[in-house]
Amino acid sequence: MSIPIKNAFLDQKMIYLSGLSEQIEYVSLETLPQCVIGESLRVFADNELIIAIAFRQMYVFDRRTGKFIREIGRFGNHPFEYTITKHILPYSEKFRTLYCNNYNIRDLYEYDLDGNIRRTIFHPPNMAIANSVIMDYNLFVGYVENISGNAPFKLVLFSDKGDTLKTYPNKNRIISSDSFYSSSLNALFYRKGEDIYFFENCLDTIYKVSIESLTPYCRFDMDNFRPSYHRKKEIQKNYHELSKYFEITNIVESNRFITWGFWHQEKLDGIGGMPRSYFVGYYDKKENETFVSEIDVERHLGFINDIDDFVNIYPQRWSINSNEEFISFIEAGDIAEWFEENPEKAKKLPDHLKKLSKLTPEDNPVAVIIKLKK
């Protein structure tokens, strides 16, 4: 399977929610002094709960009412405190567990949804593991960052005790004047059903990860928008050059759709200070169609809400659960602004959406749960 991201980017189209779904659920997350959600939010949901993971925060809310239930763990630098919340698959719906870096930064704590630390997950020693995810209860896979430019391994399978069970070779080399470096052009994992998939920026292939092998699964056709792996460090140092390429930051997949997000900026200001723009795209396997759109709140570019004619959705971070629900969020300020700018449309909304008119910009976001088409 090959997805023509470049062609879709050069021929951008409005993305309408009706192409993905027929039903949207909104859950206003309760705002209390002990659960004010910060930056870098990611939202997950099952049939009963909503899990909100942001910078140094992990909160659980009731899916039906949005009521705050509890905080998970505590940020800090002491034993039984975590130091970093994870961005790559921090929540396992199967095991109902959350993962974050523990007080020594290197290893992970595993929390249950009651807020208890179930165990410590140890990374294998002497490996620069940039991120890792659970595959089965005692089986984890980690991405080995190519710090030296000549790392022998790309992925490692390991136990919760940190025992290396298998390594997958790295055949890609980086040319760099620095002996060691760390790049933001890294890799990510995503989960579809019971399976784990892996993608690394500067390459173009999504791999299915199994105990036996890495199997090519899908190719992102980016052509000249894909940065060179060999020049990874050099590109990372040069903002103008980095901005010319696609940097994939999020991939999720349902039975019908593959959705991804990426950073890119063609129009530079000559100084290097202009931020890159964020784009989102999806591939419809059933219709064999690919769509890409820029995300821009001020220009109302994003997922155009033609289902209930309410607020558009501007996703930068999202998830998919086992019920094939696409989960993101809308900032409360965007909803408050919509009601102010659309008084006639607001009168036609159903009662459960009219209630959202009471939100202020200081309130927590509203979780958006989109039931994807089969």
Description of the molecule:
This protein has six helices and 28 strands. It has 374 residues and is mainly beta. Strands 1-20-19-18-17 form a five-stranded mixed beta sheet, with no helix packed on it. Strands 8, 9, 10, 11 and 12 form a five-stranded antiparallel beta sheet that branches. A four-stranded antiparallel beta sheet has the order 3-28-27-26. The two termini are 19 Å apart. The model has no long low-confidence stretch (mean pLDDT 92).
Identify the overall geometry. Answer: globular
Mean pLDDT reading: 92
State the low-pLDDT regions, or none: none
For the largest beta-sheet, the strand count, sense and barrel status come to: 5 strands, mixed
Number of E-state strands? 28
Strand proportion = 35-45%
Classify the secondary structure makeup into a structural class: mainly beta
Distance separating the two termini: 19 Å
The tally of helices reads 6
Amount of helix: under 10%
What does the radius of gyration come to?
Answer: 21 Å
What attributes characterize this protein structure?
374 residues, mainly beta, 5-stranded antiparallel beta sheet, 9% helix, 40% strand, globular
